[in-house]
Design brief:
Elements (H helix, E strand, L loop, with lengths): L2 E5 L1 H9 L2 H11 L4 E5 L1 H6 L1 H6 L3 H13 L2 E2 L3 H15 L3 H12 L4 E4 L14 E4 L2
Parallel strand pairs: 1-2, 1-4, 2-3, 4-5
Helix pairs in contact: 1-2, 6-7
C-alpha cells in the first residue's frame, strides 16, 4: 500500500529553482510508486499563485501538472486551521508551517517531506512523520 505523502512547498519549488542535488531528491520521491501525493491550498498559494503573479509560465505549468497528479487535496479549512492552532500552541510551529502540517495530519497522511532543518519546531510534532531532505 502506498504511503500518503505531503510535500512542503519548498520541495516543489526545489524542482523548478534549486540546485541539481535538491531537485534530484524531490524527483526521486515523485517517481516512487510507494508514495501517493497530496497537497493543500497552502501549497497552491506558495507555488502556483506566485508563479502566475510573476509570469513564470513554465513553473506554473509544472505546478499545475503536479497538482493534477496528486491523489487528492486536503482542503477542509475548518479542520486544518483547528489543527494548525494546536500544532503552533503545542510545538511552537510557525504559522504557515503549522498550516501545512495540519493539512497533512487531518487527512491522516503518513509522512511530510521538507527542506527545513531538523532543528525547526515542525520536527517536534508527534502526529506525523516529518522528514528533512537536507
Amino acid at each position: 500500500m502506498a504511503l500518503i505523502t505531503y510535500l512542503d512547498s519548498n520541495c516543489l519549488i526545489a524542482v523548478t529553482d534549486a540546485e541539481p542535488q535538491r531537485r534530484a531528491k524531490v524527483q526521486a520521491l515523485l517517481g516512487d510508486p510507494r508514495h501517493s501525493l497530496i497537497y493543500s491550498p497552502f501549497t497552491v498559494l506558495e507555488t502556483l499563485t506566485l508563479a502566475l503573479h510573476y509570469g513564470k509560465k513554465a513553473k506554473a505549468q509544472y505546478f499545475r501538472q503536479h497538482f493534477n497528479q496528486c491523489i487528492f487535496i486536503s482542503d477542509n479549512l475548518g479542520l486544518i486551521m483547528q489543527e494548525a492552532h494546536r500544532q503552533a500552541e503545542r510545538y511552537g510551529v510557525a504559522s504557515v508551517d503549522a498550516c501545512h502540517l495540519a493539512a497533512a495530519i487531518v487527512v491522516s497522511a503518513d509522512e511530510f517531506y521538507t527542506f527545513e532543518k531538523p532543528t525547526k519546531p515542525m520536527f517536534r510534532t508527534q502526529e506525523i512523520k516529518v522528514i528533512s531532505l537536507l
